[in-house]
Amino acid sequence: MSDQTPREDGPTVPDLTDQDITGQFAAWLGIEFTEVTGDRVVATWEAQPKLHQPYGIVHGGVHCSVVETLASIGAAYWVGDRGQVVGVNNNTDFYRAVREGTLTSTATPLHRGRSQQVWLVETVSAEGKVVARGQVRLQNLYPDS
């Protein structure tokens, strides 16, 4: 991971190698994080048969899961130790069927407010073609409120 340093303004989250933040499901999907900040999350993953639907292409639910995972991690990193985040809406569009190969997904925030965040996640093929694009709305939860 290229950026595991705490945010300069204080809050931190657990190291992303800790499955408390990434989860066993993300590990099962094969998501490899290459950049994680409160402003951007980038990860690669492989389209492979275990992720296929019956027609031999990556299942749409896998794309939704990758979108939700990256958005949640970016949002959690931004909130830091002030609270937690939970996804409340995931809208993912599928543009190109993929059977195999390396995919790169990038999450960036569209809105970060006191109570909610909205993150956009775009997945591209090794050839740079957009495969899927999703938007996740997350609720910020603060334990002291």
From TrEMBL:
Q: Which domain of life is it from?
A: Bacteria
The record, for InterPro entries, names: HotDog_dom_sf, PAAI_dom, Thioestr_dom
Q: Name one GO molecular function term.
A: 1,4-dihydroxy-2-naphthoyl-CoA thioesterase activity
GO cellular component: a single term: cytosol
What keyword terms does UniProt attach to this protein?
Hydrolase
Q: Domain (Thioesterase): give its ranges.
A: 55-131
What CDD domains does the entry give? Answer: PaaI_thioesterase
Q: Which family does it belong to?
A: Belongs to the thioesterase PaaI family.
NCBIfam families registered for this protein in UniProt: unchar_dom_1 (TIGR00369)
PANTHER family to which the protein is assigned, alphabetical: 1,4-DIHYDROXY-2-NAPHTHOYL-COA THIOESTERASE 1 (PTHR43240)
UniProt name for this protein:
Uncharacterized domain 1-containing protein
